[in-house]
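Possible regression after last week's pipeline update?

I re-ran a chain I had predicted before the update to compare outputs. Posting the input and the new output here so someone can diff against the archived version. Not blocking, just want to make sure nothing changed silently.
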Amino acid sequence: MFETVVKSVNGLLWGEGQVLIYILLFTGIWFSVRLKAIQLVKFKHMFSLLKGSSKCNKNDISSFQALCTGLCARVGTGNLAGVAVAISLGGSGAIFWMWVIAILGMATGFAESILGQVYKIRDSNGEFRGGPAYYIQQGLGSRAFAIVFAACLFLGYGFTFSAMQTNTITDALNYAFEIPTFYSGVVITLLAGSIILGGFKAIARFAERVVPVMGIVFVLVAVVITLINFTQVPAMLKDILLSAFGLQEAGAGAMGAAIKNGIQRGLYSNEAGAGSVPHASASASPMPNHPATQGYIQMLGVFFDTIVLCSCTAVIILLADVDISGEMEGIRLTQSAMTSHLAQGGVYFVAAAITLFAFTSVVANYAYAESNLHLFKLDNKVGRGIYTLLYLSMMLWGASATLKQVWDLADIALGLMTVVNVIAIILLTPTILSVTNDYHAQRDKGIEPEFKVKNVKVQGKCEDGIWD
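New output (post-update):
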């Protein structure tokens, strides 16, 4: 019964109904147009804001830490296993559509991250909390709609995604070192528990140290492999483009599979529009003192996650001498590809990379869902204790679950979150445009942008005492 329901809902969202594919494309185009192609026109400015992004008050979280926390959740199985799934089911053309949804998604990520900053609050511990449930409740004035999103978030980031990340780690370790999945699952769960019990600040500090290092190392390895196989690169790029538009032997059916799997796995990887990253965005201290700054910072996260890291994985797989069966393959396809480049050391490298990538996602996923306990008035020791126990239990379950089980559950959770969040951010477009225009107007005057609620047309009501 449960599997039937999951299959039916996923069929509507991702299958024949393809509701989410149309929604994501529409949303990306909507914000790209309304924000005047901000992801392209202001591309250089996006990078310039990294300077000074680590500044914040001693007890707060900096913009750079918020970016790294967002990347913690983004950079995980989607980058290594998800790309493999996309290629195995959609062919090389799926990578083109991952790029498309990432470029469009940069504008969507900018929009939702602004809202995460505008409508955040301070909790009883003095930490900033925010995200879709908060801007739905404060901006749209609908507590019921906010609770619907929070429930979808708990299904995804609270439980399902942690199981999927653990499943990928344990499978990679089993393939590389023959470690039984249950035992590695226990160790991973205990390690994750030791970090998440330290709260959002501990998670942000962990992310700030780990994410830059693991990202740089993975990119460098991909660059070396590309240089070694440089003569094959033109043919690879040609194959990606031809496959993306069904110009290969399989025709329109291949094009449909490429679009579906490219967009589906692209969303899972960069999460633009899913409503997850606004939680990290909201956690950042308002320094520099304008929400648009964090919008730019998190837009950079979408670029780095998909355009850079997912492309690295795609290059590693497509330049390798491996057979792509057409059946669903995950992290083992990436490991096999790396083995063809680096011999047996490739298996170990991918096992180490996915362990770090997915483990950081596990830690960040916990923080996202935990932020919403405040809505249910469960942000106390008992509420957090029960949630933590359930979260860690799902990690253990995921260690021994099948690949299809965890990906199906992850797809349905991500899909439901995205539908609710996209409706909210489109309805809040006037606020997004007003805040963005205020930021650029101040910059055009040579003023360091500073956000004052009274000077901007904001829908609903912001929390008092943060911006004014």
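Follow-up from reviewer: compared with the archived run. The longest strand covers residues 121-122. Marking as no regression found.
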